[in-house]
Design a protein that fits this description.
Aminopeptidase, 2 domains, eight-stranded mixed sheet, 12 helices, 16 strands, protein N-terminal-serine acetyltransferase activity, GNAT_dom, N-acetyltransferase domain-containing protein, Ribosomal_N-acetyltransferase
């Protein structure tokens, strides 16, 4: 069958051909693809690749969708694949899915392909296109946002996995009437993927931080100031680290590790929770391993995050709380420029059904600017 060729920035979408079989097999052997594409046969053979070209792709077009090769516009080499399926004609709705081979990643190939195909779909009658991705698959979420898709929530247990269970997927969608261009983010990436003052460095929490995170959140006084005040389970730890990038991309929270800049050792954590975007208010929380306390690292981390938040996001007001007995944490906030505003009785869940009071502090952008001006003066 004849498949329309679609030109996009840095990509060309064309029909799959038998010359793509070797690259199909190589791409589908990638562990990342196998992890996030559970319907994919493992191993994926040359015979299956040929069947994919001769039968599967034409069948998707026959069902009202389609399957295109993402090809290099100069060499025509296969870079990945992209398709439309789950078509609901009376709703003008379908779902887009894509993959990119390891040899072509980091070039914006997927985002360019998604933008190109979605525009084509809108021009041919579609009104709504959905994109589903695993929470752990931050690169795919970046593609969705770069292609103008907006987050809509979680599809619970929507996809059978290889272990016999079912996976949740994050849902994104783009409508024909949406403005072109990337979707705005509430929390941008850190400049150079880190913040540093030469003494401490802050970097995003990542899946590989699970052991450190478990150690930190089993320290008794860290547990006592957690909400709720109980140690996390192994599953909680794994999810917190694996889902940190998704929460950041969704604009919900920015979790960071506090690193000793001289040694590269992980010393603590700090998080910004954007709980009220409509009012421009976010909350800070932090904790340190005992071996790294007494060096002023939390104050430095709070100042770094505050400067970033006021300069790069819509945050206008930062709040933070501390237990009344936690004088050390209160001193951290005061040194960072926060001012005490309230004493909230029984605000936090405690142990054994009891509740704890909370001392609230706040920092405004103008407060921080005044402190910086004073220091410069």
């Amino acid at each position: 069958m004849i498949v329309a060729t679609l030109a996009g920035p840095g990509v060309r979408l064309r029909g799959l051909a038998l010359r793509d079989v070797d690259d199909l097999v190589a791409g589908y052997a990638d562990p990342v693809l196998q992890r996030f594409m559970p319907p994919l046969p493992v191993p994926f053979t040359h015979a299956q690749a040929r069947e994919y070209v001769s039968d599967v792709a034409p069948g998707m077009f026959a069902d009202g969708g389609g399957l295109w090769a993402i090809a290099d516009p100069v060499t025509d080499r296969l870079l990945g694949g992209i398709g439309l399926d789950k078509v609901v004609p009376h709703r003008g709705q379908c779902e887009v899915g894509y993959w990119v081979g390891p040899w072509a990643r980091g070039r914006g190939v997927a985002a360019a392909a998604v933008r190109t195909l979605t525009e084509h779909a809108f021009h041919t009658g579609m009104a709504r296109i959905e994109l589903l991705t695993h929470r752990e698959n931050a690169p795919s979420q970046r593609v969705a946002l770069a292609a103008g898709f907006r987050p809509e929530g979680v599809r619970r247990a929507v996809l059978p996995n290889r272990d016999g269970g079912r996976d949740d997927l994050l849902a994104f969608a783009r409508l024909a009437g949406d403005e072109p261009g990337p979707t705005d983010r509430l929390l941008p990436d850190l400049p150079g993927d880190e913040l540093s003052d030469g003494v401490v460095t802050l970097r995003p929490l990542a899946p590989g931080d699970a052991r450190f995170y478990a150690e930190l959140h089993n320290v008794p006084d860290v547990v006592a100031t957690s909400v709720p005040p109980v140690p996390p389970t192994d599953r909680d730890v794994t999810r917190r680290c694996a889902w940190a990038a998704a929460h950041w991309l969704a604009g919900e929270r920015a979790d960071m590790v506090i690193v000793d800049a001289a040694t590269g050792c992980d010393a603590g954590e700090i998080g910004l929770y954007y709980q009220e975007p409509s009012t421009g208010q976010a909350m800070l929380g932090y904790s340190m391993l005992p071996a790294w306390r007494g060096r002023g690292y939390p104050t430095r981390a709070v100042q770094l995050v505050s400067l970033w938040a006021f300069a790069e996001t819509g945050v206008a007001r930062l709040i933070a709380g501390a237990l009344p007995a936690n004088l050390a944490s209160q001193r951290v906030l005061e040194k960072a420029g926060f001012k005490r505003e309230a004493y909230l009785r029984s605000r936090l869940p405690g142990t054994a059904g009891r509740r704890s009071d909370d001392v609230q502090f706040a920092l405004l952008a103008e407060d921080l600017l005044a402190d910086v001006a004073r220091l410069d003066g």
